[in-house]
Amino acid sequence: MTSSADELVSEFCVLWATPDVEKLAAYFTEDAVYHNIPMQPLHGRTAIREFIEGFTVALDGIDFRIHRQLSNGPLVMNERTDVLRTQRRRRNTPSGRGNLRDPGRTDRGMAGLFRHGRDH
């Protein structure tokens, strides 16, 4: 069981290497908000799941190479390079994420789920 927000974000990032849409979407609360800048924010686990599915359909996986990660309670921010993998090529994309989780919620045996995520 994940015990901190920092560990939860790290665990979530690793899962993108072999993306499972249902597993990734399960990291968000039903009322979560995910904002991949500059797109419009997505509201709710269903909308986030549909985004993940559409985003990953053409990818073999994404390797999140985390350079720095900082956390303070439920707030986690990381500086990373995302390596988008397909059978034909790899693409490096500098990125960052701020994730909040609600430590009072539990679901599927996890210490918490994301309530707000933002990618820049």
Give me some keywords for this one.
Nuclear Transport Factor 2, Chain: A, six-stranded mixed beta sheet, 3 helices, alpha+beta, 120 residues, single chain
Overview of the structural elements:
The chain is an alpha+beta fold and 120 residues long. It has one domain (5-119): Roll (Nuclear Transport Factor 2, Chain: A), CATH 3.10.450.50. The protein contains three helices and six strands; from the N terminus they run ααββαββββ. The chain has helices at 5-15, 21-25, 45-56; strands at 28-36, 42-43, 61-72, 75-85, 90-102, 113-119. The chain has a six-stranded mixed beta sheet with strand order 2-1-6-5-4-3, covered by helices on one side. β4 and β5 form a beta hairpin. It is globular, with a radius of gyration of 14 Å. The termini are far apart. The relative contact order is 0.25. Mean pLDDT is 80; it is low at 100-111.
